[in-house]
Design brief:
Chain lengths: 393, 91
């Protein structure tokens, strides 16, 4: 499982002014555009920033092949364009080949987000034959030591093997580096790794602070000078690699001036299905008290999308408080993240506290101040104080 | 950088045409581009067989009411943008 990504697929339209035919601009979607399928919480890694909930579901409670197949069909019929097969480690599912095939047959663009651990060349070939479009390989660092410390597992050498196999097959490859204080100074080496691979895209996603990452936040947040330096390097890399590798990055929103448009807006673009079949508007929504989630075993995706109380809860603007309610940016960032509002302001209706206009911004500034305070010594690698994500019981 | 007129654009690995709700789209990692009219005509010809020049000539015929130079500029610009998004390889 990678760190939580809140990027929504962009549905752009290309307007060609002055040509014989001109496209219309993007319409607000009336259906979800992407389905995040968390196939399992089982994972060989134990990353300290995992976006899975603190309470993990076990294998016995996971949806079966037939139910996932139906979910993919319903998604395709509802107009969903892409699905992310993720977890946990999606390759921990013994039926993963069938699931890729089912998603592709349903008309979906199939992304697999994996650590690459339970993979060999033969299995990779089968995944591609089954219709896999895009493999996203997560990295915990550019080197073995830090990767092992973060994931509580030796996995880096296997990832390097996977990169070699990927050169032999035709599939889109993204390298996903999850960035935090202990590896943010390795970005040059990470870029070199991407350049030596067949990747057409590399993502540097700073950890976002929910779940396991929230529990480990004080050791994960980079300092301001680290962040500034990394952005400088990444901007230069975007120019240098233009046309070869798409370089994308996400900064930690604690350092941002305005909040992220979390999930592209609540219930506007994305739908997440948990291993047991609960339909959520975002990865962390289960932490918000009082939300009732519907399950795909009981209702169709379309019905859940349209009618589920959880999806309607923060859709649109009616729920907003000041300053969001009258803010010019409310259609750009939708008030930011509801889960972050709960975690930092204690109120899921509040303006996301990372916003410079939020009355609770001081809480974020206090956290940053503590992180940026000159400290006598960096914590030693030999005395880890991480809270590792375990495997489901 | 402008694409070479004699090169053959081809959709990059993991980029393909899709359709949903009667809307054609170019599907690629973490993105989908809606395709209508000219953009669809262009992408359908990015098959490793057509040269950039041939695509321009075809489109100038289809959109014969538009100014030919403008069609050429628009196509070169569009192909460069798709390349920068890593949706195209040129051979």
């Amino acid at each position: 499982m990678k760190g939580r990504s809140t990027a929504a697929p962009q549905l752009g339209s290309i307007s060609r002014k002055g040509s014989a035919a001109v496209n219309s601009g993007p319409q607000p979607p009336t259906n979800p555009l992407a389905l995040i399928a968390e196939l399992t919480h089982r994972c060989p890694l134990h990353c300290v920033y995992c976006s899975n909930p603190l309470e993990l579901q076990n294998r016995a409670s996971e949806l079966d092949t037939a139910t996932w197949t139906r979910v993919f069909q319903e998604a395709g019929q509802a107009g969903v364009l892409q699905t992310d097969l993720t977890g946990g480690e999606p390759l921990a599912r013994t039926d993963i080949i069938e699931l890729v095939q089912a998603a592709r047959s349903a008309g979906l663009y199939v992304n697999l987000i994996t650590s690459g651990l339970p993979l060999d060349e033969a299995r990779l070939a089968k995944l591609i034959d089954a219709g896999l479009d895009h493999l996203q390989l997560s990295f915990q660092g550019a080197r073995e030591e830090i990767a092992a410390e973060i994931s509580g597992t030796k996995s880096h050498a296997q990832k390097l093997r996977v990169l070699e196999w990927l050169k032999q097959v035709r599939v889109a490859v993204t390298l996903n580096f999850v960035i935090h204080r202990s590896n943010i100074d390795q970005i040059d080496q990470m870029l070199a790794l991407a350049e030596s691979s067949s990747a057409t895209r590399v993502e540097f996603a700073n950890v976002q602070y929910y779940g396991w990452a929230f529990a480990n936040r004080e050791r994960l947040l980079p300092t301001r000078p680290q962040l500034d330096r990394s952005i400088e390097i990444l901007k230069a890399a975007q120019e240098r690699l233009r046309g070869r590798i798409r370089v994308e990055y996400v900064v930690p929103d604690y350092y941002a001036k305005y909040p992220k448009p979390c999930m592209g807006g609540w219930g506007r673009k994305l739908m997440l299905i948990t291993p047991t079949g609960d339909a959520l508007p975002c990865h962390a929504a289960q932490i918000i008290p009082g939300l009732q989630f519907e399950n795909v075993k009981d209702r169709s995706l379309s019905k859940i999308w349209e009618n589920s109380a959880a999806f309607q809860k923060f859709r649109g603007e009616a729920w907003m408080q000041e300053p969001c309610r009258t803010c010019d940016r409310r259609e750009q960032d939708f008030g930011g993240c509801r889960c972050q509002a709960l975690l930092l302001a204690g109120d899921p209706y509040a303006t996301d506290p990372v916003c410079s206009l939020a009355p609770t911004r001081g809480k974020v500034d206090a956290i940053l101040e503590a992180v940026n305070k000159p400290s006598p010594a960096e914590p030693s690698l030999t005395t880890p104080v991480w809270l590792y994500r375990p495997n489901p019981a | 950088m402008t694409p070479d007129m004699q090169s053959h654009p081809r959709l990059a690995p993991g980029c393909r045409l899709g359709e949903n709700n009667q809307q054609r789209a170019l599907l690629m990692p973490e993105r989908a581009l809606r395709l209508n009219g000219p953009s669809l005509e262009i992408v359908q010809r990015c098959d490793g067989q057509h040269t950039v020049q041939q695509i321009i000539t075809d489109l100038q015929q289809i959109y014969s009411k538009a100014e030919p130079k403008k069609v050429e500029t628009d196509i070169l610009d569009y192909l460069a943008r798709l390349r920068d998004q890593r949706a195209l390889d040129f051979t």
